[in-house]
Amino acid sequence: MNHDEGQVEPTDALERLGAFAARDDWTATGWCRIERSLDLIGTRSAMLIVRELFYGGTRFDELARRTGLSEAVVAGRLKQLYADGIVDRRPYQEPGKRTRDEYLLTDRGRALFPIIVALVQWGELLGDDHRTGVELVHRGCEAPLSAHVRCAKGHDVPLGEAAARLKDEAYAAAARRQPHGSD
């Protein structure tokens, strides 16, 4: 969007291909991978906990303290992240204390790494005056990390060269049968 004029530029929207072009004939509600992803990790509290797990926090008290979330919120989110297969629990026991769980990212949770990098990168574009932010860097050369969109053949793909299509006709047929809602 051109912020000054408030108008959408032609390259601000994905080109719609195939059955996806008939956008009013079907709904993505209930079928959309973005919707499903947000169902799993789309809350501020979930992403702050995931952030802290990437930063090396594993214990409940660390996660609550470092996120600034209440213990009740952290407990609820960890329970949900565990149920959704994003975190795993591993028991530990300090001498003389009861057994507790520590939390670790699963493969599904570690797959969020590019999203974390993209959020950090996007946050830098906001232009606010937070100068104490964490910078994600390559351990080998200490250059900042950045997220890029590439096709499966390895080409960098800017928004103006991207398109959207339905994966298959079976999906298109099922999506057409869904009641239209906001998507």
UniProtKB/TrEMBL annotation:
Ranges for domain HTH hxlR-type: 32-131
Source organism of the structure: Verrucosispora sp. MS100047
InterPro entries: ArsR-like_HTH, HTH_HxlR, WH-like_DNA-bd_sf, WH_DNA-bd_sf
GO molecular function: DNA binding
Keyword NADP: no
Record-given protein name: HxlR family transcriptional regulator
Highest taxon in the source lineage: Bacteria
PROSITE patterns: HTH_HXLR (PS51118)
Any matching Pfam family: HxlR
Keywords carried by this UniProt record: DNA-binding, Transcription, Transcription regulation
